[in-house]
Write a structure and sequence with these properties.
mainly alpha; 0% strand; single chain; 15 helices; elongated
């Protein structure tokens, strides 16, 4: 193709159409220059095609969402056509997106487009994005372009950002740059405690205590804070965790009293962690606080 200028413009179009039907391997072997720009434009066009109605009109409900297949223990043949149609649409959506995702592994600056269009994509397209994002994130790692997106995500992409953060911190110690990026995102733009959960074991104790009232509803989070994660040391001792729970003010912190009570009960059930010695230490400290 590169050695035959007269047919150079026609060949990429043919190859691109084949790539959508077969695989995303073309994205891994694209050459630089004008040819890559054509491939990039085509991939973006295919990505955007699943954002609007053109590709999925036949399967949409009146509110713009894809119909859900009714789950039945004894499915009849009546709902099989709908199930088959949705499966076909899912395959088509993935085909339309696969080339763009492949190009992102080569050119990380293309990532932002995925987050820009996420809000307006169909339910089916969102599901496809969530299936492909973990592989993409593991491939490129904490690249500068990805961290830029995490630090300033487009409105409506919060759910996708949380998945990216979870993937970046899964089974590994996050870099200081990633931790600071997530903290900045939480403090400035995204006040969702879910975004902090993956990095809790790597935060200083005083920072964990600041957000602790919003963590009591997650029992798995208490386990991370107490036991550490990915070779990190525990952030709080069992005694410190119980005292922090006791210090939650439902009115001030906006936490239902039942959530606080449930957190206490969850601690008491873990007798191998919250031993009698721990409880005695907590009671002594609480009595001391009340005296002063």
């Amino acid at each position: 193709m590169l050695l035959r200028p007269p047919i150079r413009d026609a060949c990429p179009i043919i190859a691109l159409k084949v790539s959508i039907e077969c695989s995303s391997s073309l994205g891994r072997s694209a050459d630089e220059g004008n040819t890559f720009e054509k491939i990039e434009d085509f991939a973006k066009e295919m990505l955007l095609s699943v954002v609007g109605d053109d590709q999925i009109t036949l399967t949409k409900e009146g509110d713009g969402t894809l119909p859900e297949v009714q789950k039945d223990e004894n499915p009849s043949s009546e709902n099989q056509p709908a199930s088959s149609a949705i499966k076909e649409i899912s395959v088509e959506v993935q085909r339309c997106m696969s080339l763009y995702f492949a190009l992102c592994t080569k050119k990380h600056s293309l990532l932002r487009q995925i987050f820009d269009v996420y809000k307006d994509t169909s339910k089916m397209a969102k599901q496809t994005v969530h299936r492909q994002i973990p592989l993409l994130v593991r491939t490129i790692g904490s690249s500068r372009d990805l961290l830029d997106v995490v630090s300033d995500p487009p409105a409506g992409s919060e759910e996708l950002i949380i998945q990216v953060v979870q993937t970046l911190t899964d089974g590994t110690v996050p870099s200081p740059e990633l931790v600071s990026t997530i903290k900045r995102l939480y403090n400035i733009k995204l006040k969702d405690i879910d975004i902090l959960i993956p990095i809790l074991p790597f935060l200083p104790k005083d920072e964990v205590l600041l957000v602790f009232p919003h963590l009591v509803k997650f029992q798995v989070v208490l386990s991370r804070v107490l036991q550490g994660l990915n070779h990190s040391t525990p952030v709080l001792t069992p005694a410190e965790a119980l005292i922090a729970i006791h210090g939650i003010d439902p009115d001030r912190d906006g936490i239902p009293l039942k959530k606080v009570t449930d957190a206490c009960n969850a601690c008491f059930e873990q007798q191998h962690i919250f031993t009698q010695q721990v409880l005695a230490k907590v009671l002594n400290q609480l009595v001391g606080q009340n005296l002063y």
